[in-house]
Amino acid sequence: MSGVKPSEIMLVTFTNKAAKEMIKRVEALLGKRPKGIWAGTFHSMGNRFLRKYAKTLGLKPNFTIMDQTDAKGLMKLAINQANIKELEERFPSSVVAKNILSFSINCNKSIREVILWKYPQFDNDKIITKLKEVLNIYKTKKARDNLVDFDDLLIFWNRLLDERMVAKSIAQRIKYVLVDEYQDTNYIQDEIISKIVKQNANQNVMAVGDDAQSIYAFRGANFENILNFEKKYKNCKKYVITYNYRSVPQILDLANDSIKHNKKQHKKNMKPARLEGETPYQVNVGDEWTKPVL
To answer: How many structural domains are present in the chain?
Structure first.
């Protein structure tokens, strides 16, 4: 990548802490902070593009990003406006309603599919119909007050990339993409990366991750995104890093023996860099009804 401008590179990850660590490592390699590099979380990158192309989306550039508390409060107002008195005892709370909407967006599932998957207690035609009304009110209120929530940062970024001229402009800016912890991407994040990369003929994209370390399915992550990466991008090359510098051999033996049973995986056998350690053992942790058994 010699001669590539920093402003043509985008590094994306999931937390502010990880984003800072990425920049720190780039600085260590170059001896200085690269000027103009695109680096941050998916949501922070989405925010940057939305500020620039807000009018294309019907937003004002000075839109306000709601935090979770704000979003919960607005959803509560939407529920009150929808008049759910006859369903009140069984209707989702503002937090659950927001979670259902979020899963629907990030996993590309319908409201009913999310309810059957995550909240089967609300599988009722009247509840689902009223919930859709609530979500439309929530959406209308956001548009009226020039508000976006965290999910909107991804929704609108993804929508921008469907605008041919905007997508072309973004592709001219970003020619090299690196995504950290790709096993933690969800449907819409995978879509965003694909749309950016496929605008460039060379498809310069690198994904770092481990399908065996995907632990965020509960918030919509899909480990199959990294399994399908080779199929998605032409001339893709896979580099397997098998040395583990964190765990002792006994831990890795247990992990390798467990992971080999996965039906969907990139096969690998982790090797320890550390010396012998303690043998793993099972601990049955107590709860409010039973005492722990050691």
So the answer is: 3
Q: How far apart are CA 188 and CA 267, in angstroms?
A: 26
| C-beta neighbour count of 202 within 10 angstroms | 10
Q: Which of 95, 98, 178, 90 lies closest to 126 in space, CA to CA? A: 90
| Residue 292 confidence (pLDDT) | 60
Spatial CB neighbours of 174, under 8 Å, sequence gap ≥ 6 = 8, 9, 10, 38, 196
- Cα dist from 182 to 17, 200, 274, whole Å: 16, 20, 26
Q: Residue 116's domain spans which residues? A: 66-145
**Is the predicted pLDDT of residue 294 greater than 80, yes or no?**
no
C-alpha distance from residue 148 to each of 47, 57, 66, 163, 293 (Å): 10, 12, 6, 20, 49
Query: Side chain identity at 20, as an amino acid letter?
Result: K
For residues 100 and 102, give the distance between their C-alpha atoms in angstroms, rounded to a whole number: 5
> Cα angle at 18 between 27 and 176, to 5 degrees?
60
Are 71 and 135 in the same domain?
yes
pTM, two decimals, is 0.89
